[in-house]
Amino acid sequence: MKKKSILHISICCQDCSPVVKKALQNELVSYSKKIAEDHCNPIVDIRIDALDTQEEKQVLLELSYHYVLTKTLSVPLKTIDDFYTPIAIFTGAAIQRLYEKNPNTGTENWLLISLTSLKSSDGIYNIQWSSGYHCCQANYHSATFPLC
Hints:
This protein is α/β, with parallel strands linked by helices. It has helices at residues 18-37, 51-64, 80-101; strands at 6-14, 43-48, 65-76, 108-117, 124-135. It has one domain (6-139). Strands 2-1-4-5-3 form a five-stranded mixed beta sheet, with helices on both faces.
């Protein structure tokens, strides 16, 4: 029996208005449903987390993998599409990575995305994303972070 891979995505939207968070949540629910329609895709678990929750997940990510790739870029985010587009792009790349590993092995991975407003620049946000490479099962200690 084939076991589907799982991609856990944690999004932290600091300094975003409640209206933006709600609209983003609606877009992400719709995106998750689209992904689920294709039986070849992994299960995608997208959550909008508070900063402290995402910081805990970042620590667990770093303990669970031999290598964590973290990148940051600054871009203007004005509309809901501006917020949604980078998340969809990073998610698509993470799904591709899972697919290349072997979609039928039940592999799990995490993608952490943080959107932080630069208060000195109107509408400019730092987007930071992190993902783990080469799972370190010896350091696996938490049910929060399933085996990869």
